[in-house]
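We close this part of the discussion by returning to an individual protein. Part of our work consisted of pairing the sequence of a single chain with a tokenised description of its backbone. What the numbers capture is local backbone geometry rather than side-chain detail. The amino acid sequence and the backbone structure tokens for this protein are reproduced below.
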Amino acid sequence: MSSPYFTPSRVFSSAIGLRVIFLFYGLLQDAYSPFKYTDIDYMVFTDAARYVSQGLSPYKRETYRYTPLLAWILIPTSWPGTFWFSFGKVLFAISDVVAGWFILIILQSPAGGAMTTERALKYACIWLLNPMVATISTRGSSEGLLAAMVVALLWAVTRRRIVLAGMLLGLSVHLKIYPFIYGASIVWSLESPPDSTPVQKRPRPRTESTERLFSITTILEFFNQSRTILTISSLITFISLNLLMYGIYSTPFLQHTFLYHLTRIDHRHNFSPYNTLLHLSSAAPDKVSSLELESLAFIPQLTISAVLIPIALSKKDLAGTMLAQTFAFVAFNKVCTSQYFLWYLILLPFYLPSSSFLSSPRLGILALTLWVGTQALWLHQAYRLEFLGRSTFVPGLFVSGLLFFAVNVWILGIIIDDIGGRDRHRRESEREGLTKKDARKVS
């Protein structure tokens, strides 16, 4: 039965209204409460934008670890007036809504399941009407801007607009490093369409020369036109932006935008199981620096998210693969905050319709309960540490971080199993259809 509420005008009006409410509430809380609504990162962004507007480097603002391009975009926040100071929040909130629009049109397309508008809107609401998404963007986090680029990248790939997809990939990686993991899955998914013309081939004896020729042909077939164009366009975009920023800001650009994240030690508001170990590294760097934990943490993270998952899944379901990659990247990251959950939440509407979490409601409720519950356990320990002044690093924060990690790994396993099984289920359905057709012919 159709619902009169799930129309594009009503859903998007509600999404915009939700963000407007949060924006004005934030102004009131900032004005009258000692606990500020505006995220500290937004203060960093706006300070950097002010330096840029004065012709100075954004890196004069300590803790600004982003591309100067973001500070350039936010230059209007340096103009006088409360409205202009909130320009970035408005931009990030609009990006949220744009991302939701891309979700809708992808779900309505053949690549997204060719859903009806009403059904597609219901899944798009996971993003559009999610209070967590609206809160994070209206507090001044830039994750909504990147989410819009990621889902636009997926749309471009599904529509085979390869040059645009390459440019979006290069731009996304320049803004924030993690989208580079999508490069492998997109390239792997861009197979050449099979030749529909049957050709009778006589078997040839396998010799050393034919083996060598077969290997060369296989390599050349892998680098088809789509894969080549995507690679070239993304590299040109990424390298051009980096050369431009390096030419203006020199070494500080490389250090703060890229190199810093290789050795980053951030033990505050961090759900990661590395949290306690990073705290020890920051407290006594001389004693534990030989472990180089902050650098070694990338090995399992990138092996799973950037290599194993794309190879195993990307030819079966690109959107689902990107979700699995992002989920793994965040779960295994040495720094894991609530803002990072938006990285995979934007891709959830594409996976969820045919997931085990919906086909088995008990499993879905259990997964959600454990995911939220282990976060709450960690937040309780963090509250006791930061507000009550009690040392809860061990066992409190450490054990709760491990429990949250274990729940994430379990959920990741279900996601991977779902996506990996889709090709098997498709083949079984095709065989069942052929069997029924043959039976009708016999009868």
User: Anything to note?
Assistant: The chain is about 70% helix and 0% strand. The two ends are 38 Å apart (CA to CA).
